[in-house]
């Protein structure tokens, strides 16, 4: 999939080593994350370890793909934006990562996804019951990791995380309900994605600052940055969900079309009007009634993707990713922080909209 270049910004990903930022977040958060997972009762501890890529399906040590680590990187930068050391944000980074992976375990089961990060999903290997139980356990661990700090700041951070988690669940419920509707408005889709993706990313952008003693005004502004960054992130995910390279995404080709998701490219294409939009609407309505949908050929999914593109859904979504990126970066102007930290936050925003997985 072609990248979605951001508009010109004060700092770019070429001026900041984004890979190093992501690796720092992974390096500082992983030992604490593993210690938290080790608290789980068997076999949940090994099932979670498989999900995180630390072991393979047979229980042997593995060096699997643990994800992009954007949220931990943001949590550490959040602490620095408040004038604290990055290590102050580690419990927040771990808590957010636990909630994120709780949602992935449940989402994979609900969506019927058989692949994540180039491996079979937990429900496929260990069964649906373990996917549900381990997801629930990770959610509980997230609260423990924060609250065992025993500070006022930890309580404030836990409240923000709880609110973000509730919004995330609201977004997942909206996403599922939209799959059974013929039409969803662009506004409804953006609201759903703001809940499902934006809320937790927003929390990651403020939780380190809260642990570092920042007031609510600073934390709220960092959340605004994170919320719009989350919308940009999801817009790119929606593009990858249709046109992404399976070798890069670790998912099937046309994965969102296979699940009948009302993602931004689909919704924008249906709202655009014109011959391609109208034809797409008729085809998707027929698909919803089809008993043979799961057996559609690659060519049939490719034809639907081509109609979405012809109707303008792909171009509109790429533009929306850029717009949300710009709003996110502008929000940083309202927070006093070291110039280097600001540049790193901008570079991470750039990374979100140019990634290929």
Task: Write a short abstract of this structure.
It contains 16 helices and 2 strands. The protein has helices at residues 18-37, 44-52, 70-81, 90-111, 122-126, 128-147, 152-178, 186-211, 216-243, 246-249, 255-258, 264-271, 275-289, 298-310, 313-331, 339-354, and strands at residues 115-116, 119-120. InterPro entries: Isoprenoid_synthase_dom_sf (IPR008949), Polyprenyl_synt (IPR000092), Polyprenyl_synt_CS (IPR033749).
Can you tag this structure with a few keywords?
357 residues; mainly alpha; Farnesyl Diphosphate Synthase; two-stranded antiparallel sheet; 2 strands; 69% helix; globular
Describe the protein.
The chain has a single domain (18-354), classed as Farnesyl Diphosphate Synthase. 69% of the residues lie in helices and 1% in strands. It has helices at residues 18-37, 44-52, 70-81, 90-111, 122-126, 128-147, 152-178, 186-211, 216-243, 246-249, 255-258, 264-271, 275-289, 298-310, 313-331, 339-354, and strands spanning 115-116, 119-120. 49% of the residues are buried. By secondary structure, it is mainly α. The chain contains 16 helices and 2 strands. Helix 2 packs across helix 6 and helix 4 packs antiparallel against helix 6 (128-147). The chain has a two-stranded antiparallel ribbon with strand order 1-2. Pfam families: polyprenyl_synt. This is Polyprenyl synthatase. Keywords: Magnesium, Metal-binding, Transferase. Belongs to the FPP/GGPP synthase family. One of its GO terms (molecular function) is metal ion binding.
């Amino acid at each position: 999939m072609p990248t979605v270049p951001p508009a010109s910004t004060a700092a770019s990903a070429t001026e900041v080593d984004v890979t190093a930022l992501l690796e720092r977040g992974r390096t500082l958060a992983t030992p604490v994350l593993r210690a938290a997972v080790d608290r789980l009762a068997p076999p949940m501890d090994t099932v979670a370890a498989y999900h995180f890529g630390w072991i393979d399906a047979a229980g042997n040590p593995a060096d699997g793909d643990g994800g992009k680590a954007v949220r931990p990187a943001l949590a550490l930068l959040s602490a620095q934006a408040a004038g604290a050391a990055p290590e102050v944000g580690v419990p927040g980074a771990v808590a957010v990562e636990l909630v994120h992976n709780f949602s992935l375990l449940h989402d994979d089961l609900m969506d019927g996804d058989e692949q994540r990060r180039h491996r079979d999903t937990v429900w496929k290997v260990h069964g649906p019951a373990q996917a549900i139980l381990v997801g629930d356990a990770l959610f509980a661990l997230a609260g423990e990791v924060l609250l065992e700090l025993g500070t006022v700041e930890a309580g404030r951070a836990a409240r923000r995380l709880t609110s973000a988690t509730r919004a995330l669940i609201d977004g997942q419920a909206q996403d599922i309900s939209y799959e059974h509707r013929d039409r969803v408005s662009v506004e409804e889709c953006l609201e759903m994605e703001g809940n499902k993706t934006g809320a937790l990313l927003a929390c990651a952008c403020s939780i380190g600052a809260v642990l570092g003693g920042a007031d609510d005004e600073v934390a709220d502004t960092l959340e605004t940055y994170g919320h719009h960054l989350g919308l940009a992130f999801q817009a790119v995910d929606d593009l990858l969900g249709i046109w992404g390279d399976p070798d890069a995404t670790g998912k099937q080709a046309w994965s969102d079309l296979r699940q009948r998701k009302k993602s931004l490219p689909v919704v924008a294409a249906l709202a655009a009007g014109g011959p391609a939009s109208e034809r797409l609407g008729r085809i998707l309505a027929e698909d919803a009634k089809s008993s043979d949908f799961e057996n559609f050929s690659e060519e049939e999914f490719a034809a639907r993707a081509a109609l979405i593109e012809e109707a303008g859904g792909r171009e509109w979504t790429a533009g929306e990713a850029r717009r949300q990126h710009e709003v996110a970066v502008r929000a940083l102007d309202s927070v006093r922080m070291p110039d280097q930290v600001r540049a790193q936050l901008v570079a991470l925003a750039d990374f979100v909209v140019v990634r290929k997985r």
